[in-house]
Amino acid sequence: MNTAGKSEKTLINLPKSLDDFFVKTAGLAVFAFRIVKEAFLPPYEISETLKQCYMIGYKSLPLISVTGFIIGLTLTLQSIPTLQKFGAESLVPSMVALAVMLEIGPVITALIFAGKIGSGIGAELGSMRVTEQIDAMEVSGTNPFKYLAVTRVIAATLMLPVLVILADAIALLGGFLAVNLFGGMNLQTFIASSMANLGFREVLPATFKTFLFGFGVGVVGCYEGFNASRGTESVGIAANTAVVIASLLVILIDMVMVQLISILF
Amino acid sequence: MTDRTESVKDNDILVIEGLKKSFSGNAVLNDVDLKISKGETVVILGRSGTGKSVILKCIIGLIRPDSGSIRIFGENFLELNEKQMSSLRIRVGFLFQGGALYDSMTVRENLMFPVIRQPGYKGADLTAKIEEMLDNVGLLNAIDKMPSELSGGMQKRIGLARTLMLDPEIILYDEPTTGLDPVTSNEISHLILDMQKKYGVSSLIVTHDMPCARLVSNRIVVLKQGEFTAEGTYDELERSKDDFVSGFFKFE
Ligand SMILES: Nc1ncnc2c1ncn2[C@@H]1O[C@H](COP(=O)(O)OP(=O)(O)OP(=O)(O)O)[C@@H](O)[C@H]1O
Ligand SMILES: [Mg+2]
After folding, report:
1. Which residues on chain B place their C-beta less than 8 Å from a C-beta of chain A?
2. pTM
């Protein structure tokens, strides 16, 4: 079908040249800055923010929990044979806990969050832009930037860390199940040995970066939604673009933060 | 406020002078002048893509013109700060082409939204007012429906009811009947007329719907190449010698 080539071109709105890249990056940065600024200026949209926390946080629980469990279980199962070769079986819990809490938990959760929430916000706000609902809000005396964008970014920033902590815990549960079934390790030993190498020095910075992940996903989703152009196909474009950019941003923030953390701590 | 001392008459609700707007080099509005007085209904005619929606969006502040002045209720709209602009805006109603209902809210919540978001709102019960406005548009039974359950014409009528919730003194209509069947179009035209009689609002209407224009307009202006080139009552313009103008009145 001849539509295939066309849709491949138009389904996503990534920078087409270096100039375009800088323009878009600058636009995103200005948008993020404005979000932070307006978040601190009254009036505060408290009840709408709480509602978004519910929509963004609570409604992601099942997906995040299932993924966390499977990741913890499979990661452990795959580590056991390798560590067995070196006779280091007792290190399995510690290794799994380190991997999950510092890297895999935050990053995988944030990527799933980017897919679910980033695209959700992009599509929702994009469709509100295209059908002039955002304009309607503006002319009736509500600041849509505050009411729609700031609330969602705050909710994403606050909820992702909570989801990550939960995902970490469930992943460790999955890990315990694996060592328990295949090695007969009991819960006490598992906890003691998995926490052996983890202190606040490791966990705090890893938690801090999840706030940035959440902020990044929220900002990108809102930016793509608010800047959706006319026409219904731009809703899908906004959603797709939001996922791609948000996922890349998560990886990028992770890379930078890991370097920063290793310098600072 | 200096409005009393200016030459603007008290019953001039809207005065536009020398409005210019271009988008990335393409001039859309070259020199638009327009005056609307209290209770008057003015219709804008013009070919597709000539900037009629842009005029309405400039008036309400969704698009900033490159130059020119817009005075609403005697205030220089373009020089107001954000807060003043927003308190002036709520005296102006805007009916969007598609209704622009908030699709995550019921009809009732849609009508409540503009009112409960006003800084002065103290939690008053709005049920009676919502029912009155829905009754105006003949859709009282849709009060607890979601917008997605309504047809396009119904959405437009709800959009009008929502616009009326803030008791606007002037309403800007962007193609209120486009895309609707003749019967619904006629209903909406009569609705506009009723609102004008019942609440004494002034109206500025962009439309291609000549029966609607004939029914509701006190005056018609014709937009061509970014300027109003003709002006008069429906009957006057219908007899115009200008081919461009009379083109709007020939429908066979
Ligand atoms: N936000 C915008 N950015 C860029 N160009 C715009 C914008 N809004 C309108 N235009 C351009 O301005 C011109 C006039 O558009 P407008 O929507 O006012 O036309 P119209 O007279 O309302 O037409 P129609 O009857 O089809 O609704 C068009 O060429 C359009 O592409
Ligand atoms: Mg238009």
Report:
1. 57, 60-62, 86-87, 89-90, 92, 94, 96-98, 100-104, 113-114, 117-118, 166
2. 0.89
